[in-house]
Amino acid sequence: MYWPLLLWWGLGYLLFKNKYRLSLANWVTSAMLAILISMVFITSWYYVWTEAFLVESSIIDVGSLFIAVPLAQLVAIHVYKSLTPRLIYLWLSSIILVSLAGLFLYFTFNAPDLPFFIPPSG
C-alpha cells in the first residue's frame, strides 16, 4: 500500500495544488496518515483472520484492501481539512515517509530471521 498511495497523493498534489491552493504541509501529513492507517489496518486484518480465527481466504485478504483504503482516505481528508499548516508537520511526515521507504527497500533484500518475516510453508 505504500507505493500506490504515495503515488496517488503525490500526483494529486501536483495536479491540484494551484487549482485548490493546497497546503503542502497538510497534504504530506494527510498522505502519511493515509499510508500508515491502510498498512496497519491491512496487516492487522490479515493476522486477526489467519491467527485468531484460523481462516485463510483470498476474498478476506482483498476485502481488507477495499476497507482500508477508503477508511484511510476519509481520515486523511478530515485531517487535511482540520489541521493548521505547520512546517514541523511537513518535516515529521516527510521523515516518516522516507524512513518507511528506506525500511521497505532494506527489508526487501535483508529480511530479518524472525517468524514475522518468514513466509508460511505448506
Automatic annotation (TrEMBL):
InterPro entries, alphabetized: DUF6512
Record keywords: Membrane, Transmembrane, Transmembrane helix
Segments crossing the lipid bilayer: 24-47, 59-80, 87-109
Name listed for the protein in its UniProt record: Uncharacterized protein
Pfam families from the UniProt entry: DUF6512
Origin superkingdom: Bacteria
